[in-house]
Amino acid sequence: VYAEAINADGQVARVQMKGPEAYVFTAECLLLLSARIAESEGPRGFTTPAQWLDRDIEEIEGVELKVERL
Question: Which pTM value belongs to this model?
Answer without folding.
Answer: 0.70
